[in-house]
Amino acid sequence: MQEARQAAGQGERPRHQEDEARRHGGDRVYRGESRKHDEEDRRREHEDEPRTPEGKAAVPADAGVALRHVSSIGGQPKALSRAKYLAVETFTSGGPLGGPMAGKRDLVSVLDVERDLMGLLELAGNFKNRAKAGETFEPLRGKSLAMIFEKASTRTRVSFEVGMSQLGGHAVNLSPQDTQLGRGETIADTAKVLSRYVDAIMYRAYRHEDMVELARNATVPVINGLDDLEHPCQIISDLFTILEFKKKLRGLTIAYVGDGNNVCNSLLLGAAIVGANVSVGCPASNRPSAAIVKHAKRIAEGTNSGVAIVSDPKEAVRGSDIVYTDVWVSMGMEKEKAEREKLFRPYQVNHALLKHATGDALVMHCLPAHRGLEITDDVIDGPRSIVFDQAENRLHAQKAILARLMGAA
């Protein structure tokens, strides 16, 4: 997969400790400054820090461990100002009280693996090759994964459970109805208890705030299996699938048409990180998160890619290499079914829409598909569809995520 890394325009990946340090240092959040101003931000931040008589930055007396993180250079502790922790709006598991978890890695947002995304795709390819060769590889022997499902699941449930089994570990399936979560036990207490039983937690939640709460209180890695803001595992798998078929990511154009939902949000971030262009076609009332769009554009500045949000599906698809769609009515939106189907009808992925893409454009859908609504039968079952390869790759991508976050790769 060395060619894959070069094709995506990536050099050697920094160690995962750098990724973790950067997130807990406050860079891996939606901030008001562009990434290219990070050096200036750090200079200003240190100007405001309290100083010792010797002129060195001093950690406030009440700061404790929450104001320290491990530097990516040499692993030496570095003081951070309390203002920096309190002034950011975080969508990852870090934040003002994030310090105690500096020794673990979470996947709450695609941003949590920004520095390691291409490495994860390579690792997924490695696991897939091993599986196809019939090779037994069990780096997680003796490890356990707790899986909490607030929402029903097919691909996430099976890929994580089978993935843990193939890696030599064990998965425990939980739902609020099976646990005290459904009877009022707090998410924080659940996180603390599960952390003493298992080696990682995968959580499929309704609310992103609950995902962050679980990750902040768990002392083992927490993996976002889906929430209302992001679906990072899906997009890691999708980028792996695109790389597998197109042999590159940088410079490609991915068109997403339909609802600007959690999948769309994570796609914007993931594509920008690997240098692919993203064009989203959606109604003005159903655009992706404005904060995520803004952050994706900042990332895209550094990877020479582009982000566009338009209302016309034909404009979104024009000249694209990938056409991606998702359901119009997600779980919990059943009461809006008739209204949403009418609103999104012009965004159906059919042969007429595909005529505006490149001649070799491929079609993706994260499933489950409502055939005849967001996508037609002849397209999802047609020669340009890689939908079921995309579904298969969830297994290989989950194995890469598990191995990386649980310290086995």
What attributes does this structure have?
disordered N terminus, 39% helix, Rossmann fold, 3 domains, 409 residues, 5-stranded parallel β-sheet, alpha/beta, 11 strands
Description:
With 409 residues, this protein is an alpha/beta fold. The protein is built from 16 helices and eleven strands. A five-stranded parallel sheet has the order 9-8-7-10-11. Strand 3, helix 6 and strand 4 form a beta-alpha-beta unit. Helix 5 crosses helix 9, helix 6 crosses helix 16 and helix 10 runs parallel beside helix 11.
Question: What string gives the helices and strands in order?
Answer: HHHEEHHEHEHEHEHEHEHEHEHHEHH
Helix content: 25-40%
CATH architecture of the largest domain: 3-Layer(aba) Sandwich
Percent of sequence in beta strands: 5-15%
- Which residues sit in consecutive blocks of at least 5 with pLDDT less than 50? 1-90, 95-101
Tally the helices: 16
Q: Would you spell out the secondary-structure blueprint of this structure?
A:
Layout: H1 2-7, H2 16-24, H3 38-47, E1 68-70, E2 77-79, H4 82-86, H5 117-132, E3 144-149, H6 155-166, E4 170-174, H7 187-194, E5 200-204, H8 208-217, E6 222-226, H9 232-246, E7 253-257, H10 262-274, E8 277-281, H11 290-303, E9 307-310, H12 313-317, E10 322-325, H13 337-344, H14 351-354, E11 362-365, H15 377-380, H16 387-405
Parallel strand pairs: 3-4, 3-5, 5-6, 7-8, 7-10, 8-9, 10-11
Antiparallel strand pairs: 1-2
